[in-house]
User: Which sequence fits this backbone?
């Protein structure tokens, strides 16, 4: 009798007495006719109703409803699921189970049971509410799926694209204020994720092209058009002054620094003496890192062997800074580790250097890599501290003689202040 009373009160409270008897799986009038035809008493009828209700999950449904009112969503879910195992056709119980899942923010579960409740009885007193909550549950599920994709740093590009589609579908389902705010946040994060992925793909393509060129021993060259550029700096050291306009004819320059692997091919072909610490450099891990400790004479010999020449100091500076007077090859923003290799304290047996073609963000206006940092680069000019005061302004070649040669670009150990394109070095 207790079970029957609880079931009747529970269902009558929500959908009326008739829906309660439908929940038992039998029409009330038909049930009463059966009882009367058997000549049973009203007391027996109540006992029979109690037994039938218990068999059809009534006790579990009543318990689940009480727990749901207390916002004990996990316990309510367990009780309602137990009742639905006995009576899966109870539309109201399906609705309450969906509400319990909604309280737990288990949107897939909520979506499933709101749909089931509507399939079982599309005209019940909770049908309209079920439709509204079903739509909101769908939206929250989609938003959660997009969140998960954004949080997954290893998500494939296809998954990111799919998340973008999911987000737009959710937007079309009419968002409430809270969902709209989440949608806008996710849209911003997803757009940034897609842009970052595109940038990484471009960098990977550039790296692959650079690696391919190195592996085939064919150094790609970049054309620098004829014209004027600003050479020197009035804010730099004395030997950088005065800044002036210099005209150069068209020339080409290697896109990457000469690697250990390339220099090894040169040594094998010519038989000349290897530079100091060659055994340390000439290791598999260093083949794509630039070669070092090559004196000016051997650098000049390498260029002639390759059918090329060392650049003049003016050619080097134009290739590094272009025609807009920028401070660095990449522009006027200060150096960082994505643009140049600098500021290291330990040589670490050649590991202080980065492989050529790695620092995509540090390219010069003409697409030449590592013009500053990594290793110093020889030019063909003799060093003269007063060269800028006295030299020509059209295709200057430097002094006719001197005690040392000019090298440019800084190295792996220099400070950020020494990574400008104008400073001059000599050795």
Assistant:
């Amino acid at each position: 009798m207790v079970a029957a009373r609880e079931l009747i009160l529970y269902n009558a409270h929500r959908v009326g007495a008739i829906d309660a008897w439908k929940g038992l799986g039998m029409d009330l009038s038909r049930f009463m006719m059966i009882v009367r035809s058997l000549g049973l008493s009203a007391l027996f009828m109540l006992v029979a109703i109690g037994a039938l209700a218990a068999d059809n999950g009534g006790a579990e449904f009543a318990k689940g409803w009480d727990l749901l009112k207390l916002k004990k969503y996990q316990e309510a879910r367990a009780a309602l699921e137990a009742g639905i195992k006995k009576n899966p056709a109870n539309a109201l119980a399906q609705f309450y189970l969906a509400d319990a899942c909604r309280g737990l923010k288990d949107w897939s579960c909520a979506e499933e049971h709101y749909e089931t409740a509507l399939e079982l009885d599309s005209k019940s007193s909770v049908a309209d509410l079920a439709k509204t909550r079903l739509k909101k549950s769908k939206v929250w599920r989609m938003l959660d799926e997009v969140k998960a994709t954004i949080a997954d740093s290893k998500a494939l590009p296809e998954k990111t694209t799919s998340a973008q589609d999911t987000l737009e579908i959710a937007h079309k389902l009419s968002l409430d204020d809270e969902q709209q705010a989440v949608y806008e946040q996710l849209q911003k994060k997803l757009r940034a994720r897609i842009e970052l992925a595109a940038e990484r793909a471009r960098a990977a393509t550039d790296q692959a092209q650079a690696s391919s060129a190195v592996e085939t021993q064919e150094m790609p060259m970049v054309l620098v058009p004829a014209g004027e550029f600003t050479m020197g700096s009035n804010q730099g050291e004395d030997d950088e002054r005065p800044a002036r306009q210099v005209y150069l004819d068209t020339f080409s320059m290697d896109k990457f620094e000469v690697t250990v692997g390339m220099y090894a091919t040169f040594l094998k072909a010519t038989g000349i003496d290897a530079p100091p610490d060659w055994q340390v450099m000439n290791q598999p891990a260093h083949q794509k890192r630039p070669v070092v400790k090559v004196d000016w004479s051997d650098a000049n010999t390498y260029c002639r062997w390759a059918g090329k020449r060392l650049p003049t100091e003016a050619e080097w500076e134009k290739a590094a800074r272009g025609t807009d007077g920028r401070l660095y090859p990449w522009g006027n923003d200060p150096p960082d580790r994505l643009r140049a290799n600098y500021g290291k304290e330990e040589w670490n047996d050649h590991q202080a250097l980065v492989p050529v073609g790695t620092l995509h963000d540090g390219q010069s206006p003409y697409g030449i890599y590592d013009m500053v940092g990594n290793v110093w680069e020889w030019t063909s000019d003799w060093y003269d501290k007063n060269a800028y005061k006295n030299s020509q302004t059209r295709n200057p070649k430097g002094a006719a003689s001197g005690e040392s040669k000019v090298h440019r670009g800084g190295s792996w150990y220099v400070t950020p202040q020494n990574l400008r394109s104008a400073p001059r070095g000599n050795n």
